[in-house]
Amino acid sequence: MLDKSQRAQTIALAAICQSAMMIQQVSRGQAISDESLECLLNGIMVTAPDSVFDVYQSLPDLTAGSNLMVHQLSGQTTAKDVELTRYVAGIMSLSKRLLKNTRALNALRGDIDDVQRRLEHFSITDHSIIQNFADSYSKAISPIGAKIQVIGNPDTLRQPSVQAKVRAILLAGVRAAILWRQMGGQRRQFLFIRKQILKDAILFNKELTTTS
């Protein structure tokens, strides 16, 4: 049975925030961390974890997401990044819809099995694997809910490689959100136990800062 502790939820939430942040960076033409991208994409491949640590085996690679999580939870409304908040909300909404859609889940599992075989010959950040993830997102997830409107540099967003990377990261974000839900995460918790979530997020962030 998956661990449903606050810490397990915090780690999954950090991965969601990291995905949102990297979507923003890629869409603006900014450089992203290869290690953090690899961490998120590897999480897609772990479909039957015993714990959150099976999904995200290198927690320091989620440091940026952890920083963002603390900022978004603790800051005043005017200090929050509205664009990132919208990405996180959209990712969470899609994860809820995906969990209720057996056909989409089965299609996604089949695609992940195909990617697993290809990983014998390619790295998970290879452009062809990223394209596989992007295609999976387009086929299995895009049709089941409201599309997430990504804002960025128009010239950058017209590039097929950027579009593929954004969709691959969106898939990674949805995977993190599904994990968060499976560990007991619910959006109403941000209303009722926000201080508890923030307290553990700050503690987790300090631990990452100490180890990195």
User: What is the total tally of β strands?
Assistant: 0
Shape: globular
Q: Which architecture name does CATH use?
A: Orthogonal Bundle
Q: What is the number of helices? A: 11
Global structural class: mainly alpha
Question: Which radius of gyration do the C-alpha atoms yield?
Answer: 16 Å
- Please mark out the parts with pLDDT under 50 across 5 or more consecutive residues, or reply none: none
CATH class categorisation: Mainly Alpha
Q: Give the terminus-to-terminus CA distance.
A: 30 Å
Q: What's the structural domain tally?
A: 1
Q: Describe the biggest sheet?
A: none
Question: How would you describe the oligomerization state of the chains in this entry?
Answer: single chain
Mean pLDDT: 92
Element-level helix/strand string: HHHHHHHHHHH
Task: Identify the CATH homologous superfamily.
Answer: HflD-like
| Proportion of strand residues | under 5%
Helix content: over 70%
What fold name stands as the CATH topology? YcfC-like
